[in-house]
């Protein structure tokens, strides 16, 4: 066998192995189109509609009840966002104190206490929001289904449920 023939076989083997690697990677990721876990804008409406239909079906809700759920959710989100922005601002002040040459302990303590107070308000908001949501249910059976659904959402690993209860960032 000549030297040029051996080189051709080696090149052919490298291409063959490369194709196998690419093919195996492609096949293992075929069902995973979005590795980041972020829903694409084109899919948001479809996902929201699927979630809505599943929620209505699972809890046996009528359209009036679901509209009230959405109104309460949107109101709650706006309130939590407001508090979360204040917390973020206080954390920024705290970070600035951390990186300053001389930090003022009074400012640090006040920032930490203010963050704790705002977080406490968020927890009260969450509690009262859930009471309002449960009040929308027609009967105890619906409330039990709602409780089970919420427990399921809260028991999911943090990466699957986002920052639920922690406010947006």
Q: Can you characterise this structure?
A:
It contains six helices and no strands. It is mostly helical and 169 residues long. It has one domain. Helix 3 packs antiparallel against helix 4 (105-136). The longest helix has 37 residues, at 63-99.
Structural category is mainly alpha
How much of the sequence lies in strands comes to under 5%
Tell me the span between the first and last alpha carbons.
66 Å
Helix % is over 70%
Count the helices. How many? 6
Low-confidence stretches: 160-169
Write down the secondary-structure element order: HHHHHH
**Overall pLDDT, averaged?**
82
Computed over alpha carbons, the radius of gyration is: 26 Å
Number of strands: 0
Major sheet attributes:
none
How many domains? The number is 1
Q: What's the overall geometry?
A: flat
Précis, in short:
The chain is mostly helical and 169 residues long. The protein is 79% helix and 0% strand.
């Amino acid at each position: 066998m000549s030297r040029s023939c051996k080189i051709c076989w080696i090149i052919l083997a490298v291409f063959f192995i490369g194709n196998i690697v690419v093919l195996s990677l492609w096949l293992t990721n075929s069902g995973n189109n979005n590795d980041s876990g972020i829903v694409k804008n084109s899919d948001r409406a479809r996902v929201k509609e699927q979630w809505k239909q599943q929620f209505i079906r699972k809890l046996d809700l009528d359209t009036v009840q679901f509209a009230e759920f959405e109104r309460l959710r949107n109101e709650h989100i706006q309130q939590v966002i407001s508090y979360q922005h204040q917390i973020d601002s206080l954390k920024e002040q705290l970070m600035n104190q951390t990186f300053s040459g001389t930090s003022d302990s009074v400012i640090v303590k006040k920032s930490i206490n203010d963050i704790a107070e705002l977080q406490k308000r968020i927890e009260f908001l969450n509690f009262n929001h859930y009471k309002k949501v449960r009040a929308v249910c027609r009967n105890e059976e619906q409330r039990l289904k709602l409780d089970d659904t919420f427990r399921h959402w809260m028991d999911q690993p943090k990466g699957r449920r986002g920052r639920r209860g922690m406010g947006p960032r």
